[in-house]
Design goal:
By secondary structure, the protein is mainly α. It has 30 helices and no strands.
């Protein structure tokens, strides 16, 4: 009998040694170590022969696990259970394998069996919680992780997963408490403290976030994300000088840090310190002349300040530095439109569309430039091709309909197109005005009047809409309403000669 037991313990030692060699996966090393295997009391009451027969299956299961051959491992673990179905650890191994294969129902069954054998086992609870979370049963998972933490208050693995779970559930305050607890356990953990700082930033608790981030940077002063986050916190607190200094510190560490330059630029722009904003991006462009976004940002600043000369200059500087993009050309086209240089606008927008044929906005502006340059047919052709391709935006529908109306052709199609534009943008008064013009062209005056009135009710300060109402009321010989809307339009455009002529017609046709 003693000899038999000696052999058993020798087998068990060999068995455990092989297990530790072949089992390298997370569940076996970090979460599900072999403390769950056969407890000594149960083993001593079992047949040594059964253990010997099941040993080879268990060893093979471990080998298959290490090779990620999970179906084969599952098969071997099931063979082990044929010899002894009361081994909690085997159910845990099966549960982990089913879980890794995404077979959560089977995994859950295995954890239930393991729990029935060892109801207070923390590792079994851990796996059960993971499966519950995978099935989106967050309430059950949260409850189990909290039970684990009650029995093991400093279980960082459980604490961190619980914190993440609480964030998924939107329980940010509770997650913060967990992270604060972890920070107390591992005071010098960079990751824990950084995540804590991120959470306080999301909660807009700026002072605490600043305190945490300063601690984080004491642990790793060169960490870029932490430095940026502290700069953002300073910005959010309105401490813009400190924010600029923080971002400049990042640039000292990495002079090519694009985002640091852009953050400084945005701060100066917000403060209307345009020269400083310009100098910041000029410095960056000197370092990285191929950075398109820097040119576009400067262009936008010049445009807002009506500095069209420098706006054009910076875009052409980009082209000189071989920065050719659809945005660069389309912005040049926009400047040409503003300057009524329609030939140049057409050239630039054609280049933009050539570079990026998927940009529907540039196709729209190309058609505008073509129409303004006297090439209405070409403008219509560009828009018709876009509509026939099925790739359309509201502006294209409306403008094509407007051009048909202006040409006096395809009026039914024009009505259809403008209605399609309104489906995409129902509150657009200019599309409503276009639809009124289409019905006016069809001499459906009542319908036209209705759309003009709707457009005017949404924006009573648009002279074009008011003038359209004047025209409709003249056509309907409603002279008093004509006078009312003419006066409103005239206040907005007193130098409009066409309006003055209409006033003479009103005087001739009605008793005003």
């Amino acid at each position: 009998m003693l000899k038999s037991r000696y052999r058993f313990f020798l087998l068990l030692l060999i068995f455990n040694a092989i297990f530790f060699v072949v089992s390298e996966r997370v569940f076996s090393s970090d979460v599900l170590d072999n403390e769950y295997f056969i407890n000594k009391e149960r083993v001593l009451d079992s047949e040594v022969k059964a253990l010997s027969l099941s040993l080879s299956h268990y060893i093979m299961a471990g080998i298959y696990d290490s090779q990620n051959k999970i179906p084969l491992a599952i098969s071997e673990y099931e063979e082990v259970l044929k010899y002894n179905e009361n081994i909690a650890y085997i159910y845990v191994r099966l549960a982990s394998d089913f879980f890794l294969k995404g077979i959560n129902e089977q995994a859950e069954k295995m954890t239930l069996k393991a729990t029935s054998l060892e109801p207070e086992n923390v590792k079994v609870k851990f796996l059960t919680a993971m499966i519950a979370a995978a099935k989106n049963d967050y309430i059950k998972a949260e409850m189990l992780y909290k039970e684990i933490i009650v029995s093991e208050p400093e279980n960082l693995h459980a604490l961190s997963i619980l914190a993440d779970l609480l964030l998924v559930e939107g329980k940010i305050d509770e997650a913060l408490e967990i992270y604060e607890k972890m920070s107390g356990i591992l005071k010098n953990s960079f990751v824990i403290n950084f995540n804590l700082g991120v959470l306080y930033t999301k909660m807009e608790k700026w002072d605490r976030a600043e305190q945490i981030l300063e601690k984080v940077l004491m642990l790793d002063k060169n960490h870029i994300e932490a430095n940026f986050l502290l700069g953002f916190i300073y910005e959010s607190k309105g401490e813009l000088d400190k924010a600029v200094n923080q971002y400049n510190g990042i640039i000292e560490k990495d002079k090519f840090s694009r985002d640091a330059y852009y953050r400084i630029y945005d701060i100066f722009l917000r403060e209307k310190a345009f020269k400083k904003a310009e100098d910041t991006l000029r410095l960056f462009i000197q370092l990285v002349p191929s950075e398109e976004e820097a040119y576009v940002k400067l262009f936008s600043m010049y445009l807002v300040n009506d500095d069209y000369k420098n706006a054009e200059k910076i875009l052409k500087e980009a082209l000189n530095n071989n920065v050719e993009s659809a945005d660069i050309y389309s912005n040049l086209g926009y400047l040409a439109l503003l300057a009524s240089d329609y030939i140049s606008a057409v050239r630039y927008y054609k280049k933009s569309v050539e570079i990026n044929p998927e940009d529907l906005g540039n196709k729209f502006y190309l058609s505008v430039a073509l129409n303004k340059s006297g090439n209405k047919k070409d403008a219509i052709c560009v828009l018709e091709k876009s509509v026939s391709s099925g790739k359309v935006i509201a502006e294209i529908y409306n403008y094509l309909g407007f051009l048909y109306v202006e040409s006096g052709e395809n009026l039914e199609e024009a009505v259809y197109l403008i209605k399609e534009a309104l489906k995409l943008d129902p509150s657009n008064i200019f599309y409503m005005n276009s639809l009124g013009s289409a019905f006016d062209k069809k001499r459906d005056l009542d319908t036209a009047l209705n759309y003009f009135l709707i457009a005017n009710s949404a924006n009573t300060g648009d002279a074009e809409i008011l003038e359209n109402l004047v025209d409709i009321y003249i056509s309907k010989k409603d002279f008093w309403d004509t006078k009312e809307f003419w006066e409103k339009a005239y206040k907005l455009e007193p130098d409009n000669n066409a309006l003055s002529e209409k006033f003479k017609n009103i005087q001739e046709q009605g008793s005003l």
